[in-house]
């Protein structure tokens, strides 16, 4: 049993994993590595001047791993269902049981459809926290949008989903704020000059 099961390891899924794991939740990511990032070159991701999409992805994967998420590459989610305690994600091997589910499968919407999530036309219907009509199940990235298919938007969706899960778990609105002293504690005080 994990806290958050995340299906898809592109910018949306990995960002959800990053925020969840960084803030103390167990997060499991299942990913088949078909992310569009392998075809992209980023000039429009804020804070990144110019970077190959696969290089960006490798950095993000390292970041997620460093915070302790369980990232399972090459594992396909074949079905998702509701259980008494949350959700079960089936694979060809072991199933993953989780309290919350984040779908981050790019433009693929089949799992959301099978789970019974409401749709708005062709896209999965979500609120501003990316929660679907199925409580505790979130949908992110291209599956919730007819356009606006950009890495930074997917990453924002994943962050919103994870922060909403964290707010539910902690019983109050949760903000993932760090300050320079936090970095000093981890890396040692760094002089700017
Ligand atoms: C040619 C091209 C150029 C682009 N250029 C830019 C650009 O310059 N700037 C920009 O911001 N964006 C660009 N994009 C778009 C960008 O790549 C996407 O917006 C971004 O990758 C979407 O992220 P995501 O996490 O929503 O989905 P994805 O990155 O598509 O990730 C979805 C992941 O889910 C996995 N998955 C799917 N189903 C399952 C399943 N059942 N089980 C397990 N895993 C599953 C897939 O294999 C994939 O790894 C470009 C896209 C293309 C195609």
From TrEMBL:
<protein>
    <submittedName>
        <fullName>NAD(P)/FAD-dependent oxidoreductase</fullName>
    </submittedName>
</protein>
<feature type="domain" description="FAD/NAD(P)-binding">
    <location>
        <begin position="3"/>
        <end position="108"/>
    </location>
</feature>
<dbReference type="GO" id="GO:0016491">
    <property type="term" value="F:oxidoreductase activity"/>
</dbReference>
<keyword id="KW-0285">Flavoprotein</keyword>
<dbReference type="Pfam" id="PF07992">
    <property type="entry name" value="Pyr_redox_2"/>
</dbReference>
<keyword id="KW-0560">Oxidoreductase</keyword>
<dbReference type="InterPro" id="IPR036188">
    <property type="entry name" value="FAD/NAD-bd_sf"/>
</dbReference>
<dbReference type="InterPro" id="IPR050097">
    <property type="entry name" value="Ferredoxin-NADP_redctase_2"/>
</dbReference>
<dbReference type="InterPro" id="IPR023753">
    <property type="entry name" value="FAD/NAD-binding_dom"/>
</dbReference>
């Amino acid at each position: 049993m994990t806290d958050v099961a995340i299906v898809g390891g592109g910018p949306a899924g990995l960002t959800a994993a990053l925020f969840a794991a960084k803030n103390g939740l167990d997060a499991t990511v299942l990913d088949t590595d078909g992310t569009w990032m392998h075809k992209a070159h980023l000039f429009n991701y804020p804070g990144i001047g110019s970077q190959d999409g696969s290089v960006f992805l490798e950095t993000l994967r390292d970041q997620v791993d460093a915070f302790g998420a369980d990232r399972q590459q090459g594992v396909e989610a074949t079905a998702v269902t509701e259980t008494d305690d949350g959700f079960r994600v089936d694979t060809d091997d072991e199933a993953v049981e989780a309290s919350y589910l984040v779908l981050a499968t790019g433009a693929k919407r089949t799992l959301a459809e099978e789970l019974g999530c409401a749709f708005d036309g062709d896209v999965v219907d979500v609120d501003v926290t990316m929660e679907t009509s199925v409580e505790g199940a979130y949908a992110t990235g291209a599956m919730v949008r007819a356009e606006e298919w950009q890495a930074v938007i997917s990453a924002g969706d994943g962050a919103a989903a994870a922060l909403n899960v964290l707010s539910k778990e902690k019983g109050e609105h949760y903000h993932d704020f760090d300050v320079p002293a936090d970095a000093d504690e981890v890396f040692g005080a760094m002089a700017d000059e």
